[in-house]
Amino acid sequence: MPWTTESIVAAAGRYLTPSYKNAPIVFARGEGPWNIAQDGARYLDFSAGVAVNGLGHNHPDLVAAIASQAGRLIHQSNYWHNEHAVPLAADLCDRFERAALACAGVTLQARAFFCNSGGEGTEAAVKLARRYHSRVRNRPRPGIVTVKGSFHGRTYAAMSATAQPKYQDGFEPLVPGFRYAEFGNLDSIAAQIDDTVGAVFIEVVQGEGGVCVPPPGFFRSLRQLCDERGVLLGLDEVQTGFGRTGTLFAFEQEGIAPDLLWLAKALGGGIPIGAVLARQEVAQALQPGTHATTFGANALVTYVGRVVLGVLDRDDLVGNAARMGDYLLARLRDRLGAHSRVVDIRGRGLMCGVQLRGDVPAVIGGCRAGGLLVSLAGTDVVRMTPPLIVDRSHIDFAVDKLADALA
Ligand SMILES: Cc1ncc(COP(=O)(O)O)c(C=O)c1O
Predict the structure, then answer these.
(1) Does ligand 1 have an atom closer than 6 angstroms to the CB of 383?
(2) Are 45 and 137 part of one and the same domain?
(3) For residue 279, what are the β-bridge partners?
(4) How many C-beta atoms lie closer than 10 Å to residue 324's C-beta?
(5) Do residues 260 and 282 lie in contact, with contact meaning Cβ atoms separated by under 8 Å?
(6) pLDDT of 123
(7) Ligand 1 centroid vs 120 CA: distance in angstroms?
């Protein structure tokens, strides 16, 4: 039986767990910011695999990197080194250190742990924070404060950190020790911190929660609060990292340096890789045997990470994200700001949300029918996270299609 669009869609309902609500499209190819379905229909991808395809689809450098490294060495265990994991760690740590110095005047030395996804980054961050207090500071402080509307992944500690009941429903008992406060509200976070709490974990811009941008000065006050209480500040930059918000790391725009941060999504441009970066004092908590993953840091994924960073630099894609982000926000506000269904238009860089009244999934379906892929964030936000390679013509197309879908 040939696997046509119809037979794939039908068999999905028989063979896959019903975990995903897939639209009945089968993508066969990608071309820059475009996704091309099996039937030849072209869609402008303003989701970018939920902020993964920063370089767009099938970027020639990425394709060449995967092919060449696959021909040399794909995987080895963490018992040995390969040629790329340490250089990628050095590059990421160097970028974290330089960013911390430039934006906050903080001198730090960082170390990296590689994993395979954002959720695994959260898991590693939870273990790191807890073991740092129990074994480096010799005073257990297992509590971790996260904020409502957050999203940190679907594995157990990550789901327990995710302060949204809909993701936790039916999976109880959760991992103990998580406490929830309000995003952007320092008093509510302060109220959750006592001497059993060792860390605050937070996204700089909430992605899945609805593209929520922090109020000005919030992160500086939070940094100060964490310092006063001896609590680690951990930033989940899984979605915001690698230029998405117009700077390499989103924290750079807040004038603070975290104690640890974790990254995934765009680092591999579609190849699964994640990384936790932590200050040296914190990172030493992960002594041999305390944490590991089979695939993390293999030669293929870490080489791809190096190439992604190289292309970001060479093509000034972080700068492009800042410029195109401004243009996208301005065009959305200009075209849709006065629309009766629009509640708010917000974002940072190429991470934009249009909050709507009424049936938002229907609007997203309307965009798709017009050839534009966007995703839902929260319950009522159309989220745009296009590849960082987009130009004005792509943005004009997307804004037109969203306007059409709203009409
Ligand atoms: C901020 C944030 N953290 C963690 C995750 C989980 O990442 P993954 O799906 O790769 O496990 C996501 C995914 O959307 C995310 O946006």
Answers:
(1) no
(2) no
(3) 110
(4) 23
(5) yes
(6) 98
(7) 9
